[in-house]
Request: fold
Amino acid sequence: MKLEVITYTLADSKIAQAAGADRIEVITAPAEGGLTPSLGLVEEIREHSSIDMRVMVRPHSRHFHYDADDIHTILKDARTFRRKGIDGLVFGALTPDKKVDEDLLARFIDAADGLPVTFHRAIDEVRDQQEALRTLSKYPQVTHVLTSGGKPSALLAQDTLRELNQLAAELGTLTIIAGAGIGLEALPQFLQSTGLSEIHIGSGVRMDNQILSTLDSSLISQAKALIHSRVSW
Reply:
């Protein structure tokens, strides 16, 4: 069972590690769903923490279909970050007809040069999530898929997430991470319903449950305790 926490400041990252989070996703622009963070922030976090650190590569929030200029930036960011001692990258791209962009994904994997890749919530905009999972399973470097099950909140997609989790287990190469709208009060029932082993939380572990507020170490500790108590349910 793993708890992944969104961070977008050095202070966030220090709090997440001290409170027992298993992994952080480093972004900027949280109100836009997360964009590529600055190199300086990534370097500072790596210098001051040892937590498992996954870095978002997403040049803008307009859409997930990228043009040649976007692709140049995306690949340059991937190559730059991989040299900074991070533990993985977070990325997603779609074709105009809402399928996984395999051409760009393959180029991104090459730029990542061995780092594990999480395919992010771009998958929530595809036409067929199960087809997308099967496509992603062809790429061993893609180890995780972050999804809300195609809904604004993962709490509204528990049946879908359970099915995706079962398919991922059958495929044998992917781990589903549920994210979006998961609060601590709903966490035990949600985990039991979906069977998931990894959770991604942003506003649910922040002051006043607001994504632009600072992380709350006590809420992170509570979330971690709830996740790890799942084995005794």
